[in-house]
Amino acid sequence: xxxxxxxxxxxxxxxxxxxxxxxxxxxxxxxxxxxxxxxxxxxxxxxxxxxxxxxxxxxxxxxxxxxxxxxxxxxxxxxxxxxxxxxxxxxxxxxxxxxxxxxxxxxxxxxxxxxxxxxxxxxxxxxxxxxxxxxxxxxxxxxxxxxxxxxxxxxxxxxxxxxxxxxxxxxxxxxxxxxxxxxxxxxxxxxxxxxxxxxxxxxxxxxxxxxxxxxxxxxxxxxxxxxxxxxxxxxxxxxxxxxxxxxxxxxxxxxxxxxxxxxx
Length: 264
Hints:
The chain has two domains: 3-25 and 164-263, no CATH class; 27-68 and 70-155, Tetratricopeptide repeat domain (Serine Threonine Protein Phosphatase 5, Tetratricopeptide repeat, Alpha Horseshoe). It is 58% helix and 10% strand. It contains twelve helices and three strands. A hairpin with a 5-residue loop joins β1 and β2. The chain is globular.
């Protein structure tokens, strides 16, 4: 096996796992073969895509019951409610998530976009225009792309990939100079209270999988993680810090060193 193929296996296995960490949290891990909030979230997504909106609503309600902070399920519940013509409850759900300030800027875009569509459906044009004004501030480019769209955005695997790509591009464009000089950059995406936080990080790793456009033999690594240790007595702030900003740069740094030791 040559270096290129070996590195491709390493990167393609390691980083997609990190890419989708935001979907999961500690409270959603399966225990004792019982269905978890994540299980019901997946079941709700499948039902939604099959046009079974009643089943989707039931699944998403169960998901948020098991994990009240699982905002993907909250948002998808709102979308399923829209499909069931329950517009007022859907708007209440979107508003609830907006007020909680859940998610990254890309996630907030989804909330305002979905709510704007729902406002339009019940004839609340003025409210829809206010949400559209917010959308232009969050992402003016994407607003133009979706200006004629009437499709609600479901926060499923397809959305996560799109959202991660958008956030990754924003992070790179903001810190391009530092990244190309070899620095590992870190940004807090969202803060969900005393225990839960979401971060993203980016750095260059020497490799031959795909040359970085402005650096020879470099791979751009993007790491995204959501941490929620749940209820732990005697304070948990230090645990979240250890699991996030104090350790994330080390993860990319150690990966960088490990790759270099294997392939060079």
